[in-house]
Amino acid sequence: MRVKICGLTRAEDARAAQDLGAWALGFIFYPKSKRFIDAGTAKSIIAGLPPTAQPIGVFVNQTDEAICIAKDAGLKGIQLHGDETPDDLRRVRAAFSGTIIKALRPKTGADLQAIADYKGLADFILLDAAVRNEYGGTGHTGDWSLAQKAAGLGIPVIVAGGLGPDNIAAAYAQTNPHALDLSSGVEASPGIKDHEKLQALFASIKGSTHAAQNA
Questions:
Q1: Looking at the 3D structure of the chain, how many domains does it have?
Q2: Domain containing 107 — which CATH number?
Q3: What's the CA gap between 3 and 130, in Å, rounded?
């Protein structure tokens, strides 16, 4: 089970998540986010991580800025979490060789049709909870049934929204995604990770994996 720990703002939290086995580490460069991090701080944190780390920058309607920060800060992935169009992703793809994630916030099954527009452009589609006037990080649980439907639409899916140690195994079992994305579910406060919650999360993952192998 792969997990991305998002909303990191401190070096000790990024290192803890990496050491515990995080698949990717998310840094939010959207200024209106409660988990905003500036490019210089992120660059310093990323420089202290092992080469195997997968730092992902999260941007909201900041296509040009995303390309610049990715190159300067040493990002290995760009997550476009706003209203970016396929043309925006083409611009990123032309300038950036790393992983590209496009986030969507579907309310109904019909909204999943938009996934087809990003084939060949996005490496992953992240499905987040649909909350009015919010781009993410709300702590609301997404509709897992939509993630189930999205799994067969041609782009690997990352599931986000209201996930934590208590429901990570159930979310994975129900949606069978490429990865799961967590932020508020392992926090002490916005942008500050709770290391006990992180440890509980990865213990839950190991427990569910062991159970599945012995089922």
A1: 1
A2: 3.20.20.70
A3: 21
Q: Which residues are catalytic?
A: 6, 128
119 C-beta neighbours (distance < 10 Å), count: 12
Up-side HSE of residue 50: CA atoms within 13 Å toward CB?
A: 11
**Tell me: the pLDDT tens digits for 60-112?**
999 999 999 999 999 999 999 999 999 999 999 999 999 999 999 998 999 99
Which tokens go with 114? 């938009």
Residue 75 and residue 187: Cα distance in Å, rounded? 23
Q: How far apart are CA 133 and CA 126, in angstroms?
A: 18
Please, which residues have CB within 8 angstroms of residue 68's CB and are 6 or more apart in sequence? none
Q: Measured in Å, how far apart are the chain's first and last C-alpha atoms?
A: 16
Domain residues for the domain of 38 are 3-213
